[in-house]
Specification:
- The structure holds two protein chains of two kinds.
- Chain A is built from five helices and three strands.
- Chain A is an alpha+beta fold.
- Chain A has one domain (5-124): Alpha-Beta Complex (Sufe protein. Chain: A).
- The longest helix of chain A is centred in the last third of the chain and has 33 residues, at 104-136.
- Chain B is an alpha/beta fold.
- Chain B has twelve helices and 13 strands.
- The longest helix of chain B has 39 residues, at 245-283.
- Chain B starts with a strand and ends in a 13-residue tail after the last helix.
- Classes of the chains: A alpha+beta, B alpha/beta.
- Chain A binds chain B through residues 3, 8, 11, 14, 17, 19, 31-42, 58-64, 66-67, 102, 105, 108-109, 112, and chain B through 307-309, 311-312, 315-316, 326-328, 331, 333, 335, 345-347, 350, 382-388, 396, 401-404.
């Protein structure tokens, strides 16, 4: 099976490979997949105060299509708000990269990774708000 | 683009130009049917086929009359397994094989199970070898056939054929070996090794595709096989059909060359294989050799490169043609069942690459392959979340992965 041009392009020049500081409150991290299944994607987003994604990074263990799907996902979500990023569907990735049917699961994994990163960020933020609320309580009441 | 370096010789081999030369007359003027007894065309075809029979028999210490022509090792394996089962079904219905056999053995065995036979599939150790005591214990009074491969196509592991042959002889059980990968690569002597049936193929030894053979012992004991293909009673009634004369001539010529060159070639190839492994092992951490480093085919090297997936590796080796045990390269989306049988984890099975060297590989090609593989593994590990986690000291086997 020969690879599509766009898959090869992302495989040879992957966009946004790397890691963001997982402990940064503005960073959300999603890790999906399993080594036994042959693919693991880690996708991270960093947002500004308006919840707009200002940076995105990925690392992927998987076939060329999995690498291309995650690379494309980071490219697409940069500059989007969280809500906008959530509208990206795996079928969009399939279409853009012209993934063959056996590789559709790679695009599903990329969509899952986006969702997992956003969910992680939201959990972190709500936790933070609780922390802030606790901090705001008068110390005397303890 | 220049042609990639071909390191997938266990899949198939290029036709040796010397073999092609031998074949050409039989693709041109000497087109006769070897079964035509009434004219020159038939006689010269028959003569060529009988010469090839001697060449093939000579390579394995057999008599020429014990060689049956087939279309390839898959057919040979089918005749051996199903043909023996049908012929001896009144004697017993039990067959013994192993987990790492080629599908051309495992699938006929499954078929026989549906037909009421019982099949014992022996497990293998971490090195891919069977345990002789386990084999002995699996044999029963109703066991009619033991089918165990000579050398494994994915990992190169050689089975203790001589010991298996002796054990089967002792118990009076027919012993078949699928020698597709070993034929012409390592010394085989059907007498000394107690082999009753042996499958082989031309295209793995620089011969043409579509030609193979089955050795069927004629004495001590005389082994008989029910035919799978009927229609004319060619090949002692075991395989009907007009003979593929050019293919058979090619198989014979390829066997003769293999016999002639085996002493020097096996040494040269195992040297190149060792250099390849050394080049990879010395420049990369967390690489694992699958199989048995001692009891192995001379030119097969199976390596797992932890933290990177096989298909993405092969995409990176632009100028090397290899194969992988990764799921992504198979239709089933399951990683290699051979590596699984060895107890290699699915993660490392997905990360495996098989390098199989051959007659036309040079030392310079191996050096270039080392450079490309090392470079690609390093580049992909840079973008691997598993490599990053391992570097952080996380035990990957203890992570609660989201299975999908």
């Amino acid at each position: 099976m020969a690879y599509g041009e766009k898959i090869l392009d992302h495989y040879n020049q992957p966009r946004n490979v790397g890691s963001l500081n997982r402990d940064d409150p503005r960073v959300g991290t999603g890790v999906v997949g399993a080594p036994e299944c042959g693919d693991v994607m880690k996708l991270q987003i960093q947002v500004d105060d308006d919840e707009r994604i200002v940076d995105a990074k990925f690392k992927t263990f998987g076939c060329g299509s999995a690498i291309a799907s995650s690379s494309l996902a980071t490219e697409w979500i940069k500059g989007k708000t969280l809500d906008e990023a959530l509208t990206i569907k795996n079928t969009d990735i399939v279409r853009e990269l012209a993934l063959p049917p056996v590789k559709i699961h790679c695009s599903v994994l990329a969509e899952d990774a986006i969702r997992a990163a956003i969910a992680d960020l939201k959990t972190k933020r709500s936790g933070q708000q609780e922390d802030a609320a606790l901090d705001a309580q008068p110390t005397g009441t303890k | 683009m220049k042609s990639p370096i071909y390191l997938d010789n266990n899949a198939t081999t290029p036709l040796d130009p010397r073999v092609l030369e031998e074949m050409l007359p039989y693709l041109r003027g000497k087109f006769g049917n070897a079964a035509s007894r009434s004219h020159k065309f038939g006689w010269e075809a028959e003569e060529a086929v009988e010469k090839a029979r001697h060449q093939v028999a000579g390579l394995i210490g057999a008599g020429a009359k014990e060689i049956i022509w087939t279309s390839g090792a898959t057919e040979s394996n089918n005749i051996a397994v199903k043909g023996i089962a049908q012929m001896y079904r009144e004697k017993g219905r039990h067959i013994v094989t192993q987990a790492t056999e080629h599908k051309a053995i495992l699938d006929p065995c499954k078929y026989l199970e549906r037909e009421g036979f019982e099949v014992t599939v022996l497990p293998v150790g971490r090195n891919g070898r069977i345990d002789l005591e386990q084999l002995r214990a699996s044999l029963r009074p109703d066991t009619i056939l033991v089918s165990l491969m000579f050398g494994n196509n994915e990992i190169g592991t050689l089975q203790p054929i001589k010991e298996i042959g002796a054990l089967c002889k002792d118990k009076g059980i027919i012993f078949h070996t699928d020698a597709t990968q070993a034929f012409g690569k390592v010394p085989i002597d059907v007498e000394a090794m107690g082999i009753d049936l042996l499958s082989a193929s031309a295209h793995k030894i620089y011969g043409p595709k579509g030609a193979g053979c089955l050795y069927v012992r004629r004495r001590n004991p005389r082994v008989r096989c029910e035919a799978v293909l009927h229609g004319g009673g060619h090949e002692r009634g075991m395989r009907s059909g007009t003979l593929n004369v050019p293919g058979i001539v090619g198989l014979g010529a390829a066997a003769a060359l293999a016999q002639q060159e085996m002493p020097s070639e096996s040494q040269r190839l195992s040297g190149l294989r060792d250099r390849l492994w050394e080049g990879l092992r010395s420049q990369l951490v967390d690489v694992y050799r699958n199989g048995d480093p001692e009891h192995t085919l001379p030119a097969t090297l199976n390596v797992s490169f932890a933290y990177v997936e096989g298909e993405s590796l092969m995409m990176g080796f632009e100028h090397i043609a290899v194969s992988s045990g990764s799921a992504c390269t198979s239709a089933s989306l399951e990683p290699s069942y051979v590596l699984r049988a060895l107890g290699v984890g699915d993660d490392l099975a997905h990360s495996s690459i098989r390098f199989s060297l051959g007659r036309f590989n040079t030392a310079a090609e191996i050096e270039e392959a080392i450079v490309q593989v090392v470079g690609t593994v390093k580049r992909l590990r840079e973008m691997s979340p598993l490599a990053e986690m391992a570097a952080e000291g996380i035990d990957l086997s203890k992570v609660a992965w989201a299975q999908h």
